[in-house]
Amino acid sequence: MRLAVLASGRGSNLLAILDAIARGQLDAEVVGVFSDRAKAAALDHAREAGVPATALSAKGYPSREAFDEAMFSLVDAVHPDLIVCAGYMRLMSAASVNQRLGRMINIHPSLLPAFKGLHTHQQALDAGAAVHGASVHFVTAELDGGPVIAQARVPVLPGDDAERLAGRVLEREHPLLIATLRELAAGHIRLNKHGVQYDGATLDAPLQLTADNRLSPP
């Protein structure tokens, strides 16, 4: 499976993908990494791994739509089977997303539909949540609103602050992404008009990451 990765920051999820491929745990190839920030560490990680890395600044474009058209023309040029948003912080235009429905996923640090947007760990703490976690979902035009494929659940512990909770979520976020990509690469997961399909059956709830880092129906 040919992967294009969009990232705006440190690239920890990209590193997890590259490591899983190198270890033979994921049958995929990262064919390009793209960022809206020229100094994103993800670009450095890609180059160190010999993966083409491209940054494009939104400042030179008159609108979100114009920027997305330019960005996705670069993405499309590497012919990805799947686009992975891994810490990509820009909102995308509806037209760009709708053209790629079912071929673009995002990893988000909460149990969607709870706590969309930013500062999810603090949101969870402020809400008094007993359980937090991460979700992988298909990208739609709604912010963090696409059909959820899989989730990893993490308990909120007494005395947690946002930093401690974020660290524990990240430990499960990486295996969640790899397990989801593995199932996508094997053709087990698809999106159609009925929702997320797993081995041909429509999921009523997201797949769950098990203790041994596999996905299981709820």
What can you see in these coordinates?
By secondary structure, this protein is of the alpha/beta class. It has one domain (2-216): 3-Layer(aba) Sandwich (Rossmann fold). 32% of the residues lie in helices and 25% in strands. The protein has six helices and twelve strands. It has a nine-stranded mixed beta sheet, sandwiched between helices. Strands 8-9-10 form a three-stranded antiparallel beta sheet. Helix 4 links the parallel strand 4 and strand 5 (104-108).
Q: What's the overall average pLDDT, rounded?
A: 96
Amino- and carboxy-terminal Cα gap:
26 Å
CATH topology: Rossmann fold
SS-based structural class? alpha/beta
N to C succession of SSEs: EHEHEHEHEHEEHEEEEE
Q: Mind describing the biggest β-sheet? A: 9 strands, mixed
What is the percent of helical residues?
25-40%
Binding site for (6R)-10-formyltetrahydrofolate: 64, 106
Active site: 108
Binding site for N(1)-(5-phospho-beta-D-ribosyl)glycinamide: 11-13
Pathway: Purine metabolism; IMP biosynthesis via de novo pathway; N(2)-formyl-N(1)-(5-phospho-D-ribosyl)glycinamide from N(1)-(5-phospho-D-ribosyl)glycinamide (10-formyl THF route): step 1/1
In short:
It contains six helices and twelve strands.
How is the topology of this model organized?
Layout: E1 2-6, H1 12-22, E2 29-35, H2 41-48, E3 53-55, H3 64-77, E4 82-85, H4 94-98, E5 104-108, H5 120-126, E6 131-138, E7 148-155, H6 162-185, E8 189-192, E9 195-198, E10 201-202, E11 207-209, E12 215-216
Parallel strand pairs: 1-2, 1-4, 2-3, 4-5, 7-11
Antiparallel strand pairs: 5-6, 6-7, 8-9, 9-10, 11-12
